[in-house]
Fold this protein.
Amino acid sequence: MNVEPVTYFGLTDNPFSQDMSLEPFYETQSAKEALKDLSFFLSIREGIALLIGEDGIGKTTLIKRFTERLNSTYEAVIIFGKLESENEVIETIYEKLGWERPSLNGKSRKKLLQDLVIKLFRKKRELVVIVDDAQNLNSNLLIFLSYLSDLQFSLFRPFHVVFSGNRTFTERLMEKGMEALIERVSVIHVVKPLRLDEVKYYLNYRLNMVSSLFLQIKRKAIEKAFYVSEGNPSRMNEILNKAISLAAQRGTALINERLLNGMEEDSTKKVPTDSKVSVLKVILLVMLYALLIYTIIIGPNNFLDFWRENLFHTIKGLLP
């Protein structure tokens, strides 16, 4: 029977689900340093910033927290790495700001940018343009977005550009033709994994967010989750999500090392697949047909012995 852990443990949400509606933010030492570096980047009003980290390390959550802390001088625009053209970027900026999209008919990119800068100047707003999953943008768009950081009207600098990406993005930056972007970099921050001493507080923080009164994660289980996930929050959430599901199935509120070990054993157990069952059916039908012919040839006296021996070996070879 499939037992839903949220219902079983009386939670308001699944604390380790990737779709958790609360999107809790636990401020690790690395996160504090990242927010400090991004604030410094805005203060120097120059160049672009790079936020680098492996997938699942928490860059997107960190970006959201950074934008929440911006004062009224700034407007944050988060662009995901799925755009194809410069005009798409400009249209997306208008859309994110809630402005009417500009008419693109006959207007050059330079004119569109001039109009955008003047509009921001009149509204006394500076844009923090954050490109998430920057590794997915083509090189021309990366150069174009970095170019925005150089635009100004009088002494007004309307654009502050932050690129967030994984290791693939850093490799992209080393490619030929990306020198112009590299020259504009003024701040780089590498987001680090959780430390072992932070994991206990991180997990308990998520449990507290969903009003967990019964679930308990033992120290050995915390250490195992840390070493298996290498401190990556996303991988750790995946491990604990499976763990609380297994705990609900077994009727326990205790997440210990034995439970995590049992989870690994369950994942390695072999089960008959549909394809094996289908093969078994075909072979049995063929054997029935062959045995029918064989019985006609050798007579019914030897039929049962032949059937038992061959059927046993066939099933033994197909099942785990």
Summary: Confidence is low (pLDDT under 50) at residues 267-280, 311-320.
